[in-house]
Each structure stands twice: as C-alpha cells, then as structure tokens.
Amino acid sequence: MNSLPVITAVDGSDHSLKALEWALDAARRRSAELLVVHIRADYVKALPLPGALPAMPPVDEVPVLASVREAIEGRADLPPVRYSAVDGSPAPALIELADEAQLLVLGSRGRGGFASLLLGSVSRACAARAACPVVVVPHAARTESVEAAGTFGRVALGLAPEETSDATVEFAFEEAGRRGAGLQVITTYPVPFSTLALMGGYLDAAGTPESPREEKALSEAQDERLGAFIERYPDVAVEKVVTAADAAGRLVVASQTADLLVVGRHRRRVNADSFLVGSAANAVLLHAQCPVAVVPA
C-alpha cells in the first residue's frame, strides 16, 4: 500500500473547496492520509527586506485552514487529515510537495485567477511538472450539466498505444477498480480533411471509418497494449473505442459521461494528435467536464 499522502491545496476559493471534496474522497478510497495545504504567497510578498523575519502565524491560526477544518470535522468516514501552511509561490511550492505525494488534487482556478480564465497558471504548471499524478477538478460552471446526472460509473482513458506510458494505463485501471467503475479506452486517428471540411467541428466517425486499415491496425495495437492490464484487473469491465476523430475533441465528449478522465504526460510531443502535454492534453484540461488526471511518464 502506498504510504504517501494525497495532497490538495486550498485558498478559500470555491474552486479549491470543490477540489478538497474530490481529494477527501480520493484519500478515503486509497486508505491514505490527506494533507491540506495553504500556500501563503501574500505573506511572503509582505515581508520586509531588511532585518529579522517576523514570526509566522501557526497553522492553527491560518484562517483558510481553520475554515476548512471547521467545515469537515465531524463528518462520517473522514480519512486522516493533516494541515500545513507553506510560505512561497504556489506553483513551485506545490511541485516540490508533489515529490512526496501519491496524488495532487487542484481546482482548475484559484482565488487569484481572472474569472474569464479556463485554467489557472498553478494547476497548469503542476500538471506539466509535478512528479506524481495531478487531478485538476473543473470549476462548477463547467460541470453543472453533468453533475445533475450524478456519477456515471465510468473512467475514461486516452490511449495512444505506442506513446502512453504503463503508469498512465495502470493509474486508469486502478481508479476504475477503486470505484467499481467501467473503463472506456479511447484511441483516435486523424479524421480526413475532406470529412472535417464537409461536417465542420468535431466528428466521431465510429461505424463509418474512412481508413479501415488504420482502424484495424490500431485496434490490434490497443488489444496488445491492454492485454496484460486486463489480466491483472479482471473485475474492471473495459470498453475499447477506436475511431477517426480529433483526439482532444473525442476526449472532451467522453468527459460528459465519465467520473474521471485520464491522460498521460510525456517529456516531448510525438505528433499533434498524441495525448501528451501539448495541444490535445491542454485542450482536455481546458474543456473537460469531469476531473482530469494527468499522469507523468
């Protein structure tokens, strides 16, 4: 069992409190401790340059953490919860903390973000650089339509058979197993330009492929890549999808009926349609309607 904590950051914003709820559930499912962190960036900015540094307020007196503690104390089935206040810049501080975490859970925007921004700079930086998987929980305005439907009992995984790491696939199977959920594995190949020009926007060409040879080859590659995981996780029902579609668009559509969307993060991009920290994965973080887990290679 992984003894490292699940970490979430709170700043008093509704976005961070939404992420806190997701993190509480994640820690409970993992039988892990939850570390609730508040980054005191404003305190650092206010420090005088000359002379000795003033004493920092103790954790018990940090208003944001006190508010969280008051809100969740007494709940049934709480995981072990610990609180910490860290002084510094949020993104670097959280990336450093992630070195000793099994999961980092963040809201898509923080207190300091502009309301018009779809993804905050802190969550973006952590998703790109943290050593552990990072779950970005979208803000309420983006999830209203799907949250009304409750849970879907499905985890979705974006799989490029030759690129997606074993760690990413393993994470998706483990999450589906913890939730008693099915796993939808989505592999795409480029939609012919002529089809896009005629249809406009996102197209799922399942059932009417224009490149049957490519679809067959990808289906075989997907089967080969998933075989060992299916054997290790016999209780996870797997739905395999291979379709001609824009990778990001197809995953965003999948997020409308999933409880979690899992994508891999790699050091470099191989092609424009790959599920990496590039245009496709970034678009998923911007537009997905369910939480997105970004798993490092």
From TrEMBL:
Domain UspA: 6-138, 153-296
SUPFAM superfamilies: Adenine nucleotide alpha hydrolases-like
Entry similarity comment: Belongs to the universal stress protein A family.
Classification via InterPro entries: Rossmann-like_a/b/a_fold, Universal_stress_UspA, UspA
Pfam families: Usp
Protein's name in the database: Universal stress protein family
PANTHER family in UniProt: STRESS RESPONSE PROTEIN NHAX, UNIVERSAL STRESS PROTEIN UP12
